[in-house]
Amino acid sequence: MSENLETITSNAEEITESAIPQEKLDLPIEPAKEFTWQVILMLIVIIVAWATPNVIGKYIDNTTDLEPIQISALRYLPAALTLVIVCLATKRGKQLILDFKEKYIHLIIASLILTSFVLFQMYSVTMINANASSFLLNVNPIITFVLSILVLKERHKWWGALGVFIAFAGVFFIAIPIDQIKTTFSPAELIGSLLAFLSGFAWAAYSVCLKKFLKERDPITTTTWTLGISAVILTIVMFSVYGWFSSTAKYYHYITILFMGIVPTAIAFTLWFETIRRISVQKASVFQFLIPIIATLFTLAMGELITWFFALGGVLIIGGLIIAQKS
To answer: What DSSP string describes 191-211?
Structure first.
């Protein structure tokens, strides 16, 4: 009888000891909320800002004698100077120096990738139309999806890839007018198309590089360094190739380039880094598929009409975006 009582008591103690931990294990764990209102706001600013560079670059190329290297240098110089001023005004000077001492190799690598990105982008719009350039540049979420798995070890469900490809198909319908499909990717424009694709690849590599090696760093100081080093490289190349140049560009052309340097470059690049620090780089990159929609809406403001191609593309992009985010 006493042995049975001891056994019952022992079992009761084991149950009591394990009850609380088991209850805790059974409680549902709230997942970290990725899409806060700050992230959503940053993505909106980024998407709207990035809808402008291809259009502006094409406009500058058509109305001035500025070369792509010159446009790129004149774009990055004010961007870098703006962020330097922000760093000094917000007392980030010491952090700026510390970041370079500790991460100079990764900062230089990221800067070289960023330099190639802008050169590929600006040269592509001189060889093919802005729509085709925008379409090929926006192949980068697909490349980012692959790199995020191979390099960042991010895990995605199979329908995430499906959503990315659906959205990319939507970009095609929006960016490429139906009457220009045969000529957009003709052999005569092969080099321009290749450069546009390489700009997308470079941006994907830049995003993954930031996420992999620099995600613990301040977005403002990091972007100051990457844009600053890129601006120095582009300026040296510009003067080496063209020397001191005189241009037929008017003051309003330079104002347009200044805008391109500050808003879609200095501000949007910094916000992009902060965004991919908070959410997965793949989920953030998919939102870039919305850029052609915004760019097309800008042209609609100038009197163009919405075609059924645009409507179909918009549905595919939004549908693919929803599927990708559910992965």
So the answer is: HHHHHHHHHHHHHHHHHHHHH
Say what the pTM is.
0.79
Going 297 to 207 to 216 to 230, the CA torsion angle's sign is: negative
* Count of structural domains, the chain: 1
Q: Where on the phi/psi map is residue 268: left (φ > 0), alpha (ψ -120 to 50), or beta?
A: alpha
Let me know if residue 305 belongs to a domain. yes
Residue 259 buriedness (CB in 10 A; 0-12 / 13-18 / 19+)? middle
Is 253:71 a contact under the CB 8 Å cutoff?
A: no
136, part of any domain: yes
pLDDT averaged over 10-residue windows placed end to end, the chain, 327 residues: 49 47 42 75 94 84 88 94 96 94 95 94 79 73 85 77 80 66 61 86 94 91 96 93 80 93 96 93 86 73 62 79 72
Torsion sign, CA atoms 262, 98, 206, 198: positive
- Which pLDDT belongs to residue 89? 95
**How many degrees, rounded to 5, is the angle at CA 87 between CA 82 and CA 90?**
120
Distance CA 142, CA 59 (A): 28
Contacts of 280 (CB under 8 A, 6+ apart): 34, 148, 152, 154
What is the distance between the alpha carbons of residues 225 and 292, in angstroms, rounded to a whole number? Answer: 29
Residue 257: inside a domain:
yes
Task: Return d(Cα 281, Cα 283) in angstroms, integer.
Answer: 6
Q: How many CB atoms lie within 10 A of CB 42?
A: 19
In whole angstroms, what is the distance from residue 268 CA to residue 71 CA? 18
Residue 17 located in a structural domain: no
The Cα-based distances of 292 to 47, 50, 134, 157 in angstroms read 9, 9, 7, 26
Residue burial 107-128, b: 16+ Cβ < 10 Å; e: rest? bebbbbbbbbbbbbbbbbbbbb
Domain residue limits at 99: 54-325
Which pLDDT does position 276 carry in this prediction?
A: 92
